Predict the structure.
Amino acid sequence: MNFNLSSESEEIRLQVEDFFAKEMLPRHREWVQTVCHEHKEPTFLKELQEKAKELGLWNLALPNLAKDEPGTRLTNLEFAPIAEILGRLPWGSQVFNCHAPEVPNMAMIQALATPEQREKWLFPMLNGETRSAFAMTEPDVASSDATNIETRIERDGDEWVLNGRKWFATGGAHPDCSFLIVMGVSDPDAGRMSRHSMILVPIDTPGLTLERELRFLGWADFVAPIGQFSLENVRVPVENLLGERGQGFKGAQVRLGPARIHHSMRCIGMAEMVLAQMVARAHERKTFGRSIVEYDTVQKWIAEARIDIDMNRLFIQKAAWLLDTSQDRNTWRIVSEIKVAAPRMLQKVTDRAIQLFGAMGGTDDTLIHHAHSYARWFRIGDGPDEVHLRQIFKTEPVPEWTIADCPYIAPEGF
Ligand SMILES: Cc1cc2nc3c(=O)[nH]c(=O)nc-3n(C[C@H](O)[C@H](O)[C@H](O)COP(=O)(O)OP(=O)(O)OC[C@H]3O[C@@H](n4cnc5c(N)ncnc54)[C@H](O)[C@@H]3O)c2cc1C
């Protein structure tokens, strides 16, 4: 296992760090004002995206970029430290076209699309000209078991007809979102894992309605606003089937690896940003004649945050390295492990940061509550903790010995 970066990828990381410090961080207050308070897109965003593109800092999160696809191909391991930098700001990844749900959606379209679909749907995304959303979850069924999904997809001549309800489609409520990737039942009589297909649905198709924008814990995803949709006799051409008919779940697996690991990488960046603020604040505030940083509890919180962040970073590097080198059962297990571990770590760090900051910790004046909400949703989205834990449990081998003949137990124990 080697987590060293090549000199080329270290160079790219340094370029991103420099770009972040000079071009992005100084604009963050303007971003908050424009996006969070005025609900507009800041004019500088497109300018920064163009600059990033010119520097080759574009589509850095797609390890399978083909020769004709714009961007710089990095491995998952090479992207990890970059995702960490971008994760410090809610809008960091967007500048480099490395944000969710675009990256997982692009990875899935790259893997499944026909040449015509690639031209029509993938290239505008790769160029940052459009946005998309993945619509699987439904309000009416427990969607952590995705085989419950009920939206109907029926063939009628040269068209698919879709009926159903979807919610929590991240990015679906963004004004630039031009299409949804809808998961639904196309083959109701087939086996449990072969009943579902995915269909590309342009956002302006008659019958597709954005019912409302959703918040989670009062937190709005300003980068990829979350949509709830209804589909009533939505008709699209048969060529809008993505991947094989009845193989929707198998196809959707492609997006899970990048979605889970990239969110985990961003958790590290957020936790670092929060920890730095904790340390600064603890040094500045005084209570009962002492600086807050002198209290044992606070020192313990800071030290534990450091341990948790460093452990998770290493864990992510291992998962990224495995994703790059061998995509076997062991790889998927560790991706599940980090998907559980990283948001738990971030939740713990941010909870303590809120406490340490006092009232300010829960206001819009810091990003701590953003990071806290991010951690909390990520423990549910992309598969709740419990579903991952069950999968991880299943991979744990049962020893060949019983406790009575366990070689590690002294005979007199029985
Ligand atoms: C902010 C946010 C963004 C999201 N973005 C998207 C998106 O872009 N596209 C999309 O399709 N969906 C998205 N989702 C939805 C998300 O994937 C689902 O919420 C998730 O899969 C859980 O489904 P559910 O909400 O229906 O919960 P349910 O399926 O009703 O599950 C509820 C709870 O049951 C428990 N549970 C379930 N299974 C087990 C088990 N095997 N063992 C033990 N306990 C279990 C868990 O505690 C789980 O949290 C998003 C969600 C959030 C919060």
Observations:
- The two ends are 42 Å apart (CA to CA).
- Strands lie at 131-135, 152-156, 159-170, 177-185, 196-202, 208-214, 226-237, 241-242, 286-287, 290-291.
- Residues 101, 134-137, 142-144, 168-170, 216, 226, 377, 380-384, 386-387, 390 surround flavin-adenine dinucleotide (CB under 6 Å).
